[in-house]
Amino acid sequence: MRETPLRLAALLLIGSLPHCSLAQEQDFSKVQLKVTKVAGNVYMLEGDDAGNIGASVGEDGIVIVDDQYAPLAEKIQAALKGITDKPVRFIINTHYHGDHTGGNAYFQKQAPVIAQDNVRKRLETGGGAGNGGSVHFDAKPAAKDALPIITFDHDVTVHLNGEDIRALFFPAGHTDGDSIIFFPKSNVVHMGDDFVTYGFPFIDVESGGSIDGMIDAVEKVIAQLPPDVKVIPGHGPISSLDDMRVYVNMLKETRDIVQKALGQGKTLDQMKQAKLLDPWKKYSGDFINQDAFLETLYNSLTGQKTGKFLKHN
Ligand SMILES: [Zn+2]
Question: Which of 33, 175, 183, 248 allows an S-S link to 207, with CB 3.0 to 4.6 Å?
Fold first, then answer.
């Protein structure tokens, strides 16, 4: 599940720009949604390179986490119908990117969208997304009916299907509006894009994301959850806490080596020439390659982020 820059550009834009040319270059008609039962009453819906959807399905109806791209909304609806006839009751967005919020306008005709305050702000204003270097996209302001009707600052809980579905805000990770969603009874967590399996992650430092925030979020989740919890990544197959441990170790090691080079007065170009991230090159992908992740770390560590993150209990 790799995202090429073109496809990412499309996915970032598409939620807010239904007629943009990039959207038309992507052929959504061929996308097949794959439905997997994760654990308890939680399902995962995967569609090509779009963000994974988590769905709590039970006697009260459906709560979905993220809604992929607008052109896939009817396919998502059909896939949900294949699981239950019950209605969608709430939609929760893990963050504002268009491959996770593109279906908001469609689904909000059925049920309210819930998201952290900054998700609504970023959808409303549009603006730049990127790593502060070679990876950059522009997002246009979203239509009013795509904006989350309900927003929260720190956390919110939806009590349906016998589950306390809890969305917790983790600031300054993948973006400045990330929520991680817990399904404690089913023993499942949806990580949003704070955890992905496609290689070096995209950290949207232009939208308030940071390497330290991403590490903080993943470590707090690992510390809180039972060892057999099922993990839905923002992109990629169902994973485990051990998978997240390997991932967060990579994040810490790569951060530390760039931090050390910064302390030695090295420039970004010198770090690129020295191939500082070579020991982790297996994470280098089409979307975020070695140089792009080096830029991400450099820009995050030399930016204004202070590493003061929320305490969660
Ligand atoms: Zn994202």
Answer: 175
- Give residue 299 CA to ligand 1 midpoint distance, Å: 18
Distance 193 CA to ligand 1 centre (A): 5
Contacts of 264 by beta carbon, 8 Å cutoff, 6+ apart: none
**E strand segments, 111-241:** 113-116, 127-130, 136-139, 150-152, 155-160, 163-170, 178-183, 188-190, 230-232
Task: Convert the pLDDT of each residue in 47-80 to its tens digit.
Answer: 878 999 999 999 999 999 999 999 999 999 999 9
pTM attached to this predicted model: 0.90
- In the block, tokens 């039962």 appear at 37
* Helix axes 290-301 and 211-224, enclosed angle (nearest 10): 90
pLDDT digits (tens, 9 = 90+) for 158-205: 999 999 999 999 999 999 999 999 999 999 999 999 999 999 999 999
For residue 265, report the distance from its CA to the centre of ligand 1, in Å: 32
The dihedrals phi and psi of 49, each to the nearest 5 degrees, come to: -100, 10
